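Title: Prediction job returns without error message
Component: structure pipeline
Severity: low
Priority: P3
Assignee: unassigned

Description:
Job completed but the reporter wants confirmation the result is attached to the right record. Sequence as submitted:
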Amino acid sequence: MSAHIDQLRAELLGAVQGAKDAAALEEVRVTALGKKGRITDLMKTLGGMAPDERKAFGQNLNVLKDEVAAALDTRKRAFESAALDARLASERMDVTLPVRPEARGTLHPISQTMDEVAAIFGQMGFEIADGPDIEDDFHNFTALNFPPGHPAREMHDTFFLAPDKSGADPTTAERYLLRTHTSPVQIRTMMTQKPPIRVIIPGRTYRCDYDMTHTPMFHQVELLVIDTETNMSHLRGCLQEFVRTYFGVDDLTTRFRPSFFPFTEPSAEMDIGCSRKGGELKIGNYGDWLEILGCGMVHPNVLRACGLDPEVYQGFAAGMGIERIAMLKYGIPDLRTFFESDLRWLRHYGFAALDIPSVTGGLTR
């Protein structure tokens, strides 16, 4: 029996080493260890042997089976490694070759527009402020003069998160939300910085809405100025200079209409001149008007909530949608296409990486 096992070991291990490829190796495995394999057939004879003979022969068969399985596994890994080496060699890329023109990436219009806005307000002395996307009720509503139960809260279709119970009474646990505007950063800035303050706040905001002009996530930019002398004339001049520079129309007409926002008083909406003749929208002095943004003087209650004395400090705030002003400037008809990752759309509306916006160039195509 021992001589037979030794002979079988030599034959099977030789067949493993002689396999030319993975397919041949699989045939060896089936021949040796398959349901009708040579080792399997010998295992079936153990039942007819005497106990002592069965024990010795069974141990030798198990040793043989393990040796053959290990040899098969080693040979299989060698084939896999060789196949990988061959694939890497065939797919090798010469990184010194120039990039193909069709592989060139582009900047998304949202990124470009944010850079344009930052360049314009940067020339006016504004800095960029940032804050968290997940906010609490105080920063998103209460400190902005939205008291609990105030009807103006219903203007925002808010994404609320599950209450943070943490062992507390679930009815009184603080509830967090995805910020509905970037205004909470105004609150955080006023509570941590001493006036004078002059910042812009670009970032993502979230509301439960989705159609041709609304998406659940969109981008805003707000500006905030706080000092002891700022008034509505400064607000008007700042925004007028912005829209004229952004749209590239030096004499673009503007007007301010009374409006209501809980966090500003007085509040206004700003319109710019346009034309809608023939179903085509053009920005310029054509006799028609288009609403572009909301603004106003910071409400005294907001200043008090941030620890600032409204008898000493005052300021203005304004906010606009990044996608909206990008659509107006670059003729993009549907807001939803900003987020669909369509390469054809990105190639058409995208910007070269070196088109760095500045007030002296790069703000117009």
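Comment from assignee: result matches the submitted record. The two ends are 89 Å apart (CA to CA).
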